[in-house]
Amino acid sequence: SEHLLALINDVLDISRIESGKVHYTPAPVDIAGLTDSVITIMHGYLSDRDITFRTELEYPEERFVMTDAVRLREVIVNILGNAVKFTEDGGTVTLSVSWRAGKDDGSVTVIYRISDTGIGMSEDFVEHIFEEFSQEDHGARTQYKGTGLGMAITKRYVDLMGGRICVE
Length: 168
Known about the structure:
Oligomer: single chain
Order of helices and strands: HEHEEHEEHH
Radius of gyration: 16 Å
Low-confidence stretches: none
Largest sheet: 3 strands, mixed
Strand order of the largest sheet: 2-4-5
Number of strands: 5
Shape: globular
Helix content: 25-40%
Number of helices: 5
Strand content: 15-25%
């Protein structure tokens, strides 16, 4: 039932995004507090797994940034959830947070980098990862089920917030 609920929620999310019913409403957010909440969520994901979860956290002096906390948290949790899903026990998932000065005074760019020792993906698939219903379907990857919407939703949220997402 939990799996079906997740599938339905993904379909509803992409439908709301496509119909223009999702709006970006930035508000001041403590980026360290948001990241701490993501880390807490991840400890739940990892409770029954033998995966090392590393964090490398560097925050700007002024930790409040204008963003949509709910959507940013969803983006980071979704990517980390995929990292956990595709990393075998004994592996490592790393969340790095850094920052650099923004385009004008008083602004910063916060950079989230997520890496893992998981099974990876083919170079051909990388260019399709943000497409709806996109899943790499070969080898060990076929054991992982999902809608193929998670990364499409993630990309749309990042774009909506004026961010950038890339995959190596």
